[in-house]
Amino acid sequence: MNIRRLRSTTALVGAAALGLTTLTACSSNVDDGRTDGKLDVVASFYPLQFLAQRIGGSAIHVSSLTKPGVEPHDLEISPRQTADLSEAGLVVYLKGLQPSVDRAIAQAEPRHVADAASYTTLEDHGTEVEGDHDHGGEGGHGDEGEEGHEGHAHSGDAAADPHIWLDPVRYAQVAKGVGKALEKADPDHATTYKKNTTALVKELTTLDQDFRSGLKDRSSDTFITTHAAFGYLAERYGLRQEAISGLDPESEPSPARIKGLHSVAKKDKVNTVFFETLVSDRTAKTLAGDLHLRTDVLDPIEGIGDKSKGDDYIQVMRSNLKALQKALGTK
Fold it and tell me: What is the pLDDT of residue 191?
């Protein structure tokens, strides 16, 4: 750990020295959050990186703190990344999802910050994984949340489900907020940001309509998935999410929870157990094997990697729609 810190400090000193010697010869200016005249935008993880890229287009440079294939809940921020935050023209993040990012932002004090959670409403979609639960909270009815719920296991905000991007309507609200933040951070390109925001919101509206029409005339409302990432999606389209783990993808389900899922699967005629691309599929496949059910991928799109069924958010969401249609028996 000390060696890594020493290397990071050395790298920072070296970068600063290099900046001093090349400042006059280069159009990069650390002080105004730009590189070669383009706004430097740092996104905390993929869904916000996607929004920044689509709205900012060629007017900005975008980087992500969470690398492809890394589970964002597990991210730990390096000293170099904290320095990047302080130098950025805009930082886009989701407060409560990644505690190390929240701490680094407080430390770095970036000049402009866009908190995705502030552009929409967060609800309680916690799952009582310690026992069988039939109050419906796992189905995404946010107003039924109880005080005793843990909420996101990594979050200081009790009972707040951060997975807002899996609801195209809420994601569109966040897109509008990110667009406004870009306009404020870089007024010279405000017209571009407005235009690109409008186009993206239109695309997300179409996606929402396709989910609505695509999930009509289904034989079941219930789906079983690895962790409770799909509460907002379930709420939007009248589905019932049953999660093996809670909001924390790494938590182990109790024997009582597994027993409860056996009952749910039989009662609601569930035919599929969904797993994810970035976390272990062991528990999902064991449960499916015990119940003689098929398995499939329902991707929470926390990152795009080699196993993703699509190259970007829109493509993977459409893949999720097809997987849900098959599992829920749409006609």
Answer: 98
